[in-house]
Q: What sequence folds into this?
């Protein structure tokens, strides 16, 4: 059935190319010297230079990054504690805690976002940087727990016990033994959370209040207003570049850890 | 003070249960406050238990649910959402199955091909949708090619049509179907296929009688991963669709951020959540049965 | 001089299971002491209680005469070699071994000196910079040993450390461990289910079963005078167990025996159900035997050549199968299946013990 196999292979790669096409085109035309999205007239950085002179863009970028960093720190710390507890102590509370982890992942983001909006409104929490961070950290923490749990399960308790028999108390054991061994998993979780937060749109738009912009918000409003444009392509390409960077690093960390 | 600290540390050391609770506490507390509580409030709002000034009042009532049911077009939109969800799922299955099959069974460089498919996932949903916008728009690439090849005389208005929405949905969600299917097919025991052929089954019979039935869990898992988010999708109808493709997500968005009617929005949300939970329940029951059958 | 380790009425439960049931024993200074028993007998639990990794439900644990029952692990100064070695994969060999000294805040120069000495002792000089996954199983073993010995613990505990090694390396490490223990002059408590290891290495052995200590003594003592039939079967390569009773002192009768067997028996075991324990290597086999307390007619049922000896199974009495080990020294000691022979032994070659 060699022909059949060939058809399958061609089909797969055809779809693969179709998947990449929009993104590649977007990147490609962001370097176009004219506004056209069809004819490439010449290579130019003009859209990028316009981009980098835009104060709103810089503000949004700054916000996106600071939010993502804050979210990452909070999520990873919470997740580390929780994943630690879940793996070491096999208690019957297991399924309830599993619900806490998996429901946020399954629930559509829009319902989660509006619920948070209501909550923040009722308790009178000021909207801005922190409301966005706290919102992101809910799914950030749960995703991080899932990643960490997988890593921690392979972690042997006996290494910690060995450290204790050699004179290390609980805190020394954690910082000298546990943390270094878990580091690749922690980094992987951190990078995942960062990317999720940086790219987030729905929850951010609900919880941000007035005036607080992040990169995805700027991209969205530009797309709504003016449709597709090379300038927006440039912005999108840039945003994509940041996510790509973090995802690639995450991939390499995981690859390297597998060889340890 | 130091004495108390020392006593506390000794107790924590000894009681494993206490250690467990202390470790779990921060995350659980956080999730309870910022995840559970909001949903509780939403439920209360949907039952009219707040005032316009955001004070809690005990006045439970179904009026907002009734309002939702009487809302013009809500049922239409709800059905439309389900329709789009099902259509997307179907598209993803049809397109995704051959791909998953190829990678899992036939491909020699599985890891590489899988990685190649995952890279677009690193682009955020929003950006992927926007990128597709670029191609589908009237001044975009698709039209450019079709016009250039003189297949059409005037640019096709693909944006703002259901077609655009469907294409974008399939584009965004395809991978959510491929990955679980791949995981399922990858675990397929080759010896089963060999056994089938020694028993006289040709390639087609083997596929329909052995491979397909065994890959059903993967199809179901993938379908769930596609259907649930797709039904609640908001960005895609908003950017590449038009008012006549608006789905549940858009309705909730409009009700909340434009009319600021938290009551109605909550009611609609809750209906949506119940719908999703129902689907998950069905899935869990089905998954449970499947386990027994094996 | 106080004993190195003392357990007094230690009990530990895990839910319904009683892992340690009123355990009491002492380990003397510089002794190589083994806890021997089948899987699940509670020996690892005992070890972990001594280390402080498990807290007993009741009882007292003393180290060098001091009550340490409430003292946390990192203050007990015990070393523990884990079954899975538990080496720190993110550190190299040197840092692994130096860890205990670092915790004790020993100055850097001294750490270097002592680590190097220890590496020499076990034959691993020059491997300081290697990472753990670059070492062989036997080398990792020795690193784990060094790591726990270098901080000079009062007692070294070993939890079936040789389990993951190949047979030949395991046999070699058994001898190595004993040598190191003697050279370093420390108390070792060794947990294992392999009775050959225990017999070769230990000064004294404690046999455990079902959470209890059944017998403590030197290897030879336990081997030739096991206290019950469980211990008799567990220790040693093989043993013949014959059920019966002693109605009068000096004579053992069993359903499968045609006539009484001459034995030595304790008074308190008379007229109670007992077993006769007879080691295969203590039985003589020949076509005709003389001058032995007990001689029985038998027929060779199976013969296995094992290099150093023949393992024969002979049928005697009423359907009674007896295993006999005969050193192979030539055709005189070789028999064929269906040969009619005689087997024999003296009173002191057997032990009468209660059924466990």
A:
């Amino acid at each position: 059935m060699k022909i059949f196999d060939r058809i399958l292979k061609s089909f797969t790669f055809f779809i693969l190319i179709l998947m990449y096409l929009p993104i590649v085109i977007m990147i490609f035309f962001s370097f176009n010297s004219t506004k056209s999205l069809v004819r490439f007239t010449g290579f130019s950085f003009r859209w990028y230079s316009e981009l980098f002179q835009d104060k709103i863009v810089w503000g949004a970028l700054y916000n996106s990054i600071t939010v993502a960093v804050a979210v990452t720190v909070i999520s990873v710390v919470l997740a580390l504690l929780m994943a630690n507890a879940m793996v070491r102590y096999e208690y019957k509370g297991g399924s309830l805690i599993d619900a806490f982890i998996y429901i946020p992942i399954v629930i559509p983001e829009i319902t989660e976002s509006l619920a948070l909006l209501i909550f923040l409104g009722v308790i009178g929490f000021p909207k801005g940087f922190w409301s966005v961070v706290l919102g992101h950290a809910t799914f950030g923490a749960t995703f991080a727990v899932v990643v960490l749990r997988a890593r921690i399960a392979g972690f042997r308790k006996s290494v910690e016990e060995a450290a204790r028999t050699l004179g290390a108390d609980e805190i020394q054991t954690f910082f000298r033994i546990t943390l270094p061994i878990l580091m690749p998993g922690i980094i992987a979780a951190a990078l995942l959370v960062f990317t999720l937060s940086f790219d987030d749109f729905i929850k951010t738009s609900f919880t941000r209040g007035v005036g607080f912009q992040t990169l995805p918000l700027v991209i969205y409003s530009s797309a709504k207003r003016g449709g597709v444009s090379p300038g927006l392509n440039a912005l999108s390409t840039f945003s994509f570049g940041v996510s790509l960077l973090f995802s690639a690093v995450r991939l390499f960390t995981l690859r390297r850890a597998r060889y340890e | 003070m130091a004495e108390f600290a020392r006593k506390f540390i000794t107790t924590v050391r000894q009681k494993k249960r206490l250690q467990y609770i202390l470790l779990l506490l921060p995350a659980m507390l956080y999730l309870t406050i910022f995840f559970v509580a909001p949903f509780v409030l939403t439920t209360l709002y949907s039952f009219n238990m707040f005032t316009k000034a955001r004070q809690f009042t005990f006045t439970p009532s179904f009026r907002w649910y009734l309002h939702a049911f009487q809302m013009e077009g809500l049922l239409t939109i709800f059905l439309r959402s389900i329709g789009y969800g099902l259509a997307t799922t179907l598209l993803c299955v049809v397109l995704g199955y051959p791909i998953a099959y190829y990678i899992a069974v036939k491909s020699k460089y599985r890891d590489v091909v899988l990685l190649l498919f995952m890279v677009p996932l690193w682009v955020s949903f929003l950006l992927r949708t926007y990128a597709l916008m670029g191609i589908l728009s009237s001044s975009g690439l698709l039209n450019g090619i079709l016009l250039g090849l003189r297949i059409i005389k005037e640019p096709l208005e693909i944006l703002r049509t259901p077609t655009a929405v469907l294409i974008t949905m399939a584009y965004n969600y395809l991978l959510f179907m491929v990955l679980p299917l791949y995981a399922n097919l990858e675990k397929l025991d080759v010896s089963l296929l060999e056994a089938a052929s020694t028993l006289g089954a040709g390639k087609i019979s083997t596929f329909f009688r052995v491979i397909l039935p065994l890959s059903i869990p993967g199809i179901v898992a993938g379908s769930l991963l596609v259907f649930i988010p797709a039904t609640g999708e908001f960005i895609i109808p908003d950017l590449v669709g038009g008012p006549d493709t608006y789905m549940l997500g858009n309705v909730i968005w409009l009700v909340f951020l434009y009319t600021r009617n938290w009551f109605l929005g909550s009611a609609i949300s809750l209906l949506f959540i119940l719908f999703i939970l129902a689907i998950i329940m069905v899935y869990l029951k089905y998954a449970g049965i499947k386990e027994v059958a094996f | 001089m106080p004993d190195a380790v003392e357990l007094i009425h230690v009990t530990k439960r895990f839910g319904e299971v009683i892992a340690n049931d009123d355990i009491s024993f002492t380990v003397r200074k510089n002794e190589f002491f083994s806890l021997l028993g089948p899987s699940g007998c509670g020996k690892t639990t005992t070890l972990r209680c001594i280390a402080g990794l498990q807290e007993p439900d009741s009882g007292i644990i003393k180290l060098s005469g001091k009550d340490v029952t409430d003292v946390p692990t990192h203050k007990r100064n015990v070393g523990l070699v884990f079954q899975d070695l538990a080496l720190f994969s993110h550190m190299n060999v040197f840092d692994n071994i130096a860890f205990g000294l670092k915790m004790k805040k020993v100055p850097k120069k001294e750490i270097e000196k002592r680590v190097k000495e220890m590496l020499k002792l076990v034959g691993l000089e020059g491997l300081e910079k290697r990472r753990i996954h670059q070492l062989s199983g036997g080398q990792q073993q020795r690193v784990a040993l060094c790591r726990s010995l270098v901080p000079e613990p009062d007692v070294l505990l070993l939890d079936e450390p040789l389990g993951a090694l190949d047979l030949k390396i395991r046999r070699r490490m058994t001898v190595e461990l004993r040598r190191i223990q003697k050279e370093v002059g420390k108390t070792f408590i060794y947990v294992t289910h392999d009775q050959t290891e225990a017999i070769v290495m230990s000064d004294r052995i404690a046999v455990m079963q079902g959470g209890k200590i059944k017998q403590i003594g030197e290897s030879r003592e336990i081997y030739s005078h096991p206290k019950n039939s469980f211990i008799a079967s567990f220790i040693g390569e093989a043993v013949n167990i014959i059920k019966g009773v002693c109605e009068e002192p000096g004579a053992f009768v069993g359903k499968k025996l045609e006539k009484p067997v001459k034995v030595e028996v304790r008074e308190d075991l008379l007229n109670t159900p007992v077993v006769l324990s007879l080691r295969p290597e203590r039985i003589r086999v020949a076509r005709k035997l003389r001058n032995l307390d007990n001689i029985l007619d038998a027929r060779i049922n199976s013969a296995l050549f094992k290099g150093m000896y023949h393992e024969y199974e002979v049928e005697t009495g009423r359907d009674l199968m007896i295993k006999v080990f005969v050193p192979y020294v030539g055709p005189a000691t070789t028999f064929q299946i269906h040969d009619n022979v005689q087997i024999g032994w003296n009173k002191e070659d057997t032990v009468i013990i209660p059924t466990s």
